[in-house]
Amino acid sequence: MQSRVHQKLNTAQLQSEHFGVVHQNVLANIADIYHTTVSTLGPRIMVNGEHSYLSSTENINKVRSLLLAAIRSAMLWKQCGGQRWRFLFFRRKMLLEVEFLLSEIEKQG
Q: What's the Cα-to-Cα distance from 7 to each of 33, 34, 58, rounded to whole Å?
């Protein structure tokens, strides 16, 4: 499953270079990666919210993309030796990095 995710993420990377990171095609591709791989494992993640918002394909793709990003982030954090206390002590540094990344995304969008 990891190799399938890796292969599909490479495709999404190429797609994002062409369309931009937050383009609907890229989000749909990443959402499909989550849907066909990670979501098949248990326990399942249940998303609650307003039905009118959650029934939109665009919002479904965004939620699934974020879920895949969260799972990948947690795995990378652990692989790099991340620990809970580090999360507490370096939160300011992480916040600055997130703000920088958001500004980069806004420039592209």
A: 10, 13, 23
pTM reported for the whole predicted model: 0.76
The fourth-level CATH superfamily of domain 2-82 is: HflD-like (1.10.3890.10)
Q: What is the pLDDT of residue 109?
A: 61
CA angle 37, 76, 70 (to 5 degrees): 55
CA torsion sign, 51 to 52 to 57 to 58?
negative
Q: Where are the alpha helices (DSSP H) in the chain?
A: 2-19, 24-36, 51-54, 57-79, 84-89, 91-108
CA distance 25 to 85: 38
Q: How confident is the model at residue 2 (pLDDT cuts 50, 70, 90)?
A: confident
Q: How far is residue 10's CA from residue 16's CA, in Å, rounded to a whole number?
A: 10
For the chain, what are the domain ranges? 2-82
Q: Tell me: the pLDDT tens digits for 60-95? A: 999 999 999 999 888 888 888 888 888 788 889 989
